[in-house]
Amino acid sequence: MSQLIWNGLFVGSFYALVALGYSMVYGIMKLLNFAHGDIYMLGAFTGFAILGAVGGISPGMALPALLGVLVVTMGVTGLSGVLLERVAYRPLRNAPRLSLLITAVGASFTLEYGMRAAAGADPQVYPLRLGGTSAEILGARITLQQIALIIVAVALMVGLNLLVTRTREGRAMRAIALDPRTSALMGINVNAVISRTFFLGSALAGAAGVMAGAYYGKIDFLMGFLIGLKAFTSAVIGGIGNIPGTMLGGLLLGLLESFGTFWLGGEWRDVFAFGVLILFLSVRPTGLLGERVTERV
Amino acid sequence: MSLLSVEDLRLSFGGLLAIDGLSFTVGEAEIVSVIGPNGAGKTSAFNCVTGFYRPTAGRILLSGREITGMRPSGIAGLGVSRTFQNLRLFGEMSVLDNVRAGAHLWLRQNFVDALLHTPRYRRTERECTEQAHHWLDFVGLRGDRFGEARALPYGEQRRVEIARALARRPALLLLDEPAAGLNHGEKAEMLALIRRIRELGIATVLIEHDMGLVMEVSERVVVLNFGREIADGRPEDVRRDPAVIEAYLGRDDEDDEDDTDDTDDTDDTDDTDGKGGADGKGGADDGDGGGDGDA
Amino acid sequence: MTAPGATRAPALGRAASRLLDSRWAGLAGLVLALLAPFVIATPYALSVMTSAAIFVMLASGLNMVVGFCGLLDLGYVAFFAVGAYTSGVLSTRLGLPLLATVPVVIVVTVIAGVVIGAPTLRLRSDYLAIVTLGFGEIIRITANNLDVTGGPSGIYGIPSLATSPVVFYYLTVVIVSVAVIGASRLGRSRLGRAWRFVREDEDAAEAMGVHTYKIKLAAYIAGAVWGGLAGVLFAGQLSAISPGSFTFLQSALVLMAVVLGGMGSTPGVVVGAIVISLLPEVLRDFAGYRFFAFGVLLIIVMLVRPQGLWPHRSREASS
Amino acid sequence: QGLLGGDSQAGDGKGPIVLGMLIPQSGSEAAIGPYMKNAADLAVEEINGKGGVLGRKLELKVADDACDAQTAVAGANKLVTEGVQVSVGGYCSGATLPTLPIFGKANIPMIIPAANSQELVDQHLKHVFLINGTGSQQATAAMAWITKRGAKSVALVHDNTSYSKDIAVRTQKLLDEPGGPEAAILEAVTPKESDYSANINNILAKKPDFVYWTGYFQEGGLIIRQLRQSGYKGAIMVGDGSVSEKLASIAGDAGEGVFATMTQTPDTLQGAEGWVASYTKKFGSAPGPYTNQAYDGVRLAAEAIKNAGATDGAKVIAALEGIDGFQMFSGPLKFTPDHTLSAGGFQILVVKSGKFALQDALK
Amino acid sequence: MATLEVEALDVHYGGVHALRGMSLTVGEGEIVALLGNNGAGKTTTLSAVSGLVRPTAGKIVFDGADVTRARPEAIVRAGLVHVPEGRRVFSTLTVHENLQIGGYLVRDQAEIRKRVDRVYSLLPRLAERRTQQGGTLSGGEQQMLAIGRALVSGPRLLLLDEPSMGLAPLVVASVMELVREVNAEGVSVLLVEQNAKAALKIAHRGYVIESGACVLGGSARDLRGDSRVVEAYLGGL
Ligand SMILES: Nc1ncnc2c1ncn2[C@@H]1O[C@H](COP(=O)(O)OP(=O)(O)OP(=O)(O)O)[C@@H](O)[C@H]1O
Ligand SMILES: Nc1ncnc2c1ncn2[C@@H]1O[C@H](COP(=O)(O)OP(=O)(O)OP(=O)(O)O)[C@@H](O)[C@H]1O
Ligand SMILES: [Mg+2]
Ligand SMILES: [Mg+2]
């Protein structure tokens, strides 16, 4: 039982990590950024390329090396996100919201198959592995990396939440989400704030990509698709644009999958997870922590 | 039996009592104004009557039938129509389509008619369009009625909203600040419009901050403050009610210098002595003709 | 009274826009579709054109839900699957001809529309999106796991509606045309206007007596029936169906057809659907780069025409 | 060619003989396509190098099926339109099934190198030949090795695709017969994910001493790694879809000692070392899943055309039915009345220092 | 020197020619009223000045700098703040956050706090509703919030689009008083108002616009006396 919970939490924190960026971008532009998962993929491959270029790394240096790679990768994916927004999303700011969906899917295809052209369709094996020293805690087998990963995810969540709810930048993000035109009248540089949001969100996705590569060991050009969907799901369950909600949403999805697998078997897992989600949303239509918007008439 | 009767209505948002025991009635073809300071609960009362808010307590009866807690479309189905304080037009649809929305409830047409374009379909569509034009003429829309509603200037949008509400063929019409954003001449037209609506036998409840209009057109005035009713009576009585002056209108000596023109129009004896009413009426009567000249 | 604001389109422009307006353009499109096999009738061309026609039907069904009513549905393929599987199972297990399964398909898809729509249509669009996505996945996985549906390898040996691909193509074109016209007529009727009211402003629609919930459900059901019938055609065309045809990606592609063409515009979604279904075929020779090129083209097209290829015009012809 | 224009299909005695190959080049299975295409290219090149068939060169036309039925149907029609004379493709069963009638109507024989679901066989179509071992043959081989190893409790893990589930379910049936080892659990995983800990949790709860993974190498490598990380000590075996060096490199150290059920491979076949070398030299990577089947498919097509003395569909089909003793990786070929391999020629391989080596020929 | 100079401005919305050679000036420390019928182009003029819509011709000079093509945020930075038509408060932000957003460009937190407190004291109703979501305020309360929000940004030129709309008579008076006070502190004001009497009472000068161009301009006193203005906007004879 505790193993189930732990597994769910761990997988969930991965979802949450990707979902945080997704949620921020979604929150500010109401854009289903289908390419977000592919930024995650891009992150994994960037890390892979850097490690390959650097050459062998002694096992003792694995963690510091990983941190270095992480930082560089975050920069790269962050900039890619900014570029993506600049090229594919910004020109459509005043178009119907769903028009962005097309360019997002287009960007997703472009990234995926661009990577396929660059790195091949075959999966790549990460040159750096986080070995598994595990310990038994409360009857669950837990590895150090898992704990580290969860700590990172939670820390990012807390930091982001502070940023969004407490700072001027965060207020600007929320204002833009509500009404970009009026935000500009407040002196907010809408484009710059959106760019920064994309940078942050994409950097997070890139970090998650590297961590996934190092933890699981295998990356391929389609690795972002499924996790992108799950991140979207997590972000929505949590309450769109709500950072702690997104985190909880990711964890909840992880737990649902874990328990669904246990109770109904792997083949019915997603039916269970989505079934519960649908029931949940029909009772609580704005997600876990989503604000109930009372719109005046 | 009165058309609308609101009995001891209460509405709270968390700790805030937006409406606190409001009761009033509206008779057939009567024009009743609801006035009060900002945040007094006027719009909230409309929202309760039209089903957008569920009252915390109290009853709302329409022709003796209880409608408390029904969904808005159900209440609309019983003949209640409204406009919104913050315009709620279907912005990306044509002006004509906006007014056609009013026809939704009486248009007898089903999906088979629509798929096969039966004679009934053609007839009802034609009728619907004719009606839409009719009501746009009725409210005196000047702007382009085939283009998007959101492209109209603010004041014109107000007229479209009223036309839409009228196309519903209501027994009771609720207007939330119809004269906001209109200049003097346009207000006169609005006044005339409200009178013409009454002539159709439609009862009207009006929220307005423009005292000139309110005093001119209402048969009865209900005054709210902090969700409570502080006066209910004929306009001239309400105007003199000290509680109303205190809470809402302001004292004469204050307003003769600084206060709104409209209060002045009807209040200030030295300025437009006795003409406030006549002037309003005059503007109203030749409103259609004069309106064009203004534009 | 005529007003200064009333704009009058120049006669020429109006004539042009009339010509472009659905009826003539639609007729021209239909003629084009009917003549195409006389120009090119290779099995390949026919199969691609048939698929495109079926895709048009899907898109016009989804257009009622997304374009007209503004409900973001990311799991539209669920109805496609329900239709395909219902007719597939009935025709192979009970030996019914495909045509005979149509009434059952309609009933089943209506039920599916209600089942999926009823609990979820109260949700706001983003939440609705995830719930519909979930339903799409649930249907696919269920088909993958059950025995009646043939598990992961699906059902094979479904009888076709016609003996030759050419006849099947013509049959498809006729059915799809009827469906497209039907959708467009619904869109211009009282019901269709109500859909647009709901899309634009639910509160205002309620105030005008539009029971928004029922109206949305109606859009859902209509979309479901269209999708289901497209599923029947699909089963007839392929003769074998499997869960792999009903993935989320397929839903996304149909949605893209709607948006790319121009939401709420009938000629738009027809064009959009044709583009989305033909483009990958046109790019087929790029093999591995196919989807790369597809992605780039999608972005470019959208940047050039942000409102869609053939957007809906809200201006009415003054009559 | 339009309805008015009449057909002018190529197919006469001149020009190259065209072989068609439908494989996934995009979509979720895109990784497989290149392996099969490379192998086919290699075979075509070799045969052309020796003068071709019937004095004509071979030409390979490849179409993407994206592992999706509709794309596959369009692709198949495209191949038919381009005048393909024999089809040597077919990887995903779901995408291959709807193409059968298309090739059938055009009277084009199909040599299917990879797809092997029972539904392909059940229709008893005259033009369809499967040269991959069937699920039941593989299951039998797996069962033999499980028994030989003395395992008691077996966990069967598949990825819910028809190919993988078929092997797992058939193995389960064999295990369910009284006596011998038991099937502990039939577990399905979702392909294309990274974390299988929930599934592994289910598996370990049943305390098996043998795990048989019947899916592909991408997930296989991860599952092996995560099984070992979770403390599983028993034996692990994978199906032929997982036989790729990538499996071992994804699994890392955990991959050592993993068994596999596999038809004969160049590595295990005497005299085939040179083939691996030339493949690796030409394409810069080692052969992967279904490389040898795709290679054999082309060779078989050439052989049948040669025997038939013509490219006419009916004659080639007859020639294929008549083939006896043609040497393939999987052994000498003779089709059963079902048009499948008589014996799968399955062997047991084992991972040794990152490579698959023969463990037991199961003779 | 004039704070704002608008010269021969043209604005098109698609096919609609909304401004046709609009010109006006706002002098340093002036309150200038802009009167006109519905659709005359008042809102469009303000939107063009604040950078929300792009003029097709003409020139806008603010404080000697050409801002015709500047982006809205740059214009705000220069000290020109626009209270838009229809209030446009941020609906799910609280009243307090809405006010803070007004001070987005102000780096000094203490200064923002000071200005917000000042708004609270000028418009006490807002203080009562500090934590309420902007979107749930009553119409008049939202109008107060929109005005208060602009004040927090500390403008040098304030564009007000129908600030009295939806306000109770007493509040109209106090808002007009507030505008006068702000003006007394050196802020120039361009005021669009349908309540012409109230506007002309506090304005120094005014313009009447029709069909996208000024047809009349002059001191408030002159306008109050002009028969055309009286007839159309003031309602006297
Ligand atoms: N959904 C809500 N949540 C919280 N408070 C609300 C909500 N709706 C209204 N209120 C509060 O209830 C009070 C009454 O609001 P209402 O809109 O009815 O006022 P009003 O009389 O129409 O004022 P105005 O003349 O300014 O339009 C206001 O103080 C408002 O802030
Ligand atoms: N988005 C738009 N699209 C098309 N036309 C528009 C748009 N906005 C305004 N217009 C047109 O521009 C003209 C000027 O409109 P504007 O809103 O500036 O008028 P206004 O003087 O502010 O009127 P009001 O007193 O009603 O607010 C009008 O004819 C209007 O129809
Ligand atoms: Mg109100
Ligand atoms: Mg305006």
UniProtKB/TrEMBL annotation, chain A:
Topology relative to the membrane: Multi-pass membrane protein
Entry-linked CDD domains: TM_PBP1_LivH_like (cd06582)
Keywords: Amino-acid transport, Cell inner membrane, Cell membrane, Membrane, Transmembrane, Transmembrane helix, Transport
Intracellular or extracellular location(s): Cell membrane
Keyword Transcription regulation: no
Transmembrane segments: 6-27, 39-57, 63-84, 96-115, 144-164, 193-215, 221-240, 247-265, 271-290
Domain of life where this protein originates: Bacteria
Primary location class: membrane
Family under the similarity heading: Belongs to the binding-protein-dependent transport system permease family. LivHM subfamily.
Family annotation (PANTHER family): BRANCHED-CHAIN AMINO ACID TRANSPORT SYSTEM PERMEASE PROTEIN LIVH (PTHR11795), HIGH-AFFINITY BRANCHED-CHAIN AMINO ACID TRANSPORT SYSTEM PERMEASE PROTEIN LIVH (PTHR11795:SF371)
Protein name: Branched-chain amino acid ABC transporter permease
TrEMBL record, chain B:
CDD domains documented for this protein: ABC_Mj1267_LivG_branched (cd03219)
UniProt feature, compositional bias: Basic and acidic residues: 272-284
MF terms in GO: ATP binding
Residue ranges, annotated region (Disordered): 247-295
Domain annotation ABC transporter: ranges: 4-251
Keywords (A to Z) from UniProt: ATP-binding, Nucleotide-binding, Transport
Listed PROSITE patterns: ABC_TRANSPORTER_2 (PS50893)
Acidic residues bias spans: 252-271, 285-295
Protein name per the record: ABC transporter ATP-binding protein
Organism: Sphaerisporangium corydalis
Automatic annotation (TrEMBL), chain C:
Keyword Protein transport appears in the UniProt entry: no
Signal peptide (UniProt feature, chain positions): none
Membrane topology listed for this record: Multi-pass membrane protein
Origin superkingdom: Bacteria
Subcellular location, record wording: Cell membrane
Transmembrane segments annotated in the record for this chain: 24-46, 52-82, 94-118, 167-186, 217-240, 252-279, 291-310
CDD domains, per database record: TM_PBP1_LivM_like
InterPro entries: ABC_transp_permease, LivM-like
Name recorded for this polypeptide: Branched-chain amino acid ABC transporter permease
Originating species: Sphaerisporangium corydalis
Taxonomic lineage of the native organism: Bacteria, Bacillati, Actinomycetota, Actinomycetes, Streptosporangiales
Automatic annotation (TrEMBL), chain E:
CDD domains documented for this protein: ABC_TM1139_LivF_branched (cd03224)
Domain of life, per lineage: Bacteria
ATP-binding keyword on record: yes
PROSITE patterns: ABC_TRANSPORTER_1, ABC_TRANSPORTER_2
Xref: SUPFAM superfamilies: P-loop containing nucleoside triphosphate hydrolases (SSF52540)
GO MF annotations in UniProt: ATP binding
Residue stretches making up the ABC transporter domain: 4-236
Coiled coil: none
Classification via SMART domains: AAA (SM00382)
Keyword list, A-Z: Amino-acid transport, ATP-binding, Nucleotide-binding, Transport
Gene3D superfamilies registered for this protein in UniProt: P-loop containing nucleotide triphosphate hydrolases (3.40.50.300)
InterPro entries per the UniProt record, alphabetical: AAA+_ATPase (IPR003593), ABC_branched_ATPase_LivF/BraG (IPR030660), ABC_transporter-like_ATP-bd (IPR003439), ABC_transporter-like_CS (IPR017871), BCAA_Transport_ATP-bd_LivF (IPR052156), P-loop_NTPase (IPR027417)
Membership in a protein family: Belongs to the ABC transporter superfamily.
Designated name of the protein: ABC transporter ATP-binding protein
Organism: Sphaerisporangium corydalis
